[in-house]
């Protein structure tokens, strides 16, 4: 069981304070979704949790060990990270791209042992790409490429999975398929964190929502306590209706509120 924590985490990028004293505890078995307006610090937070952004103050701690002090190989086995809108530069077959997720285990993509081959096949199946394994990854649609890159992260079978906008490029069916996969990973004991902009989908799938605004945690907890009309107005600058219904609730963004900075 792997617990990931941000403790008083502050990150400065150039002259900008992207994260400002974040305290967060991400639990195994839970699917946490980070939401917030553009520029709120979501990607910076996820990159910090992956050990890719260096804190100015505070730290990220994995099972009570500081992430930055951990050997890179160990960290790569513990944390799988899907970057936002990632691309594929080389015409590797899709299965070869997914096999790169086995590198942290010392498994070469061309010589995968049985466990590695099974992990790759299972990851491809779980995102619905089992029939495209031989296709060059440069010859995929945007949504297929996004699913291939998610499959690479899944194939690592790390106890922590961090995904930056994993469903942004996907059609509605594949959004549900992928969110089911992420939730199932959490239910199997992983610590799963994703960034999303679709608040209705976030509310439906997340165990916990973390609402970021201006580099700070504005609110966190179960979707129904975090996503209130008042908070959506204060953070996203929208008038929104939050409609409760069986199986979750629907967030309908009705109109932008006047931008007070203009
Ligand atoms: N390399 C950088 N140098 C300076 N400032 C940066 C850099 N990268 C990001 N920022 C700034 O840091 C803040 C947080 O950026 P971040 O990418 O974490 O936001 P985000 O919440 O993920 O946004 P989005 O929803 O648009 O993806 C923003 O104000 C952004 O302009």
Automatic annotation (TrEMBL):
Part of the ABC transporter complex HmuTUV involved in hemin import. Responsible for energy coupling to the transport system. This is ABC transporter ATP-binding protein. Keywords: ATP-binding, Nucleotide-binding, Translocase, Transport. InterPro entries: AAA+_ATPase, ABC_transporter-like_ATP-bd, ABC_transporter-like_CS, P-loop_NTPase. It holds the Pfam family ABC_tran. Belongs to the ABC transporter superfamily. The keyword ATP-binding applies. The keyword Lipoprotein does not apply. It comes from the Bacteria. Gene3D superfamilies: P-loop containing nucleotide triphosphate hydrolases. It comes from Microvirga mediterraneensis. SMART domains: AAA. GO terms for molecular function: ATP binding; ATP hydrolysis activity. Residues 4-239 form the ABC transporter domain.
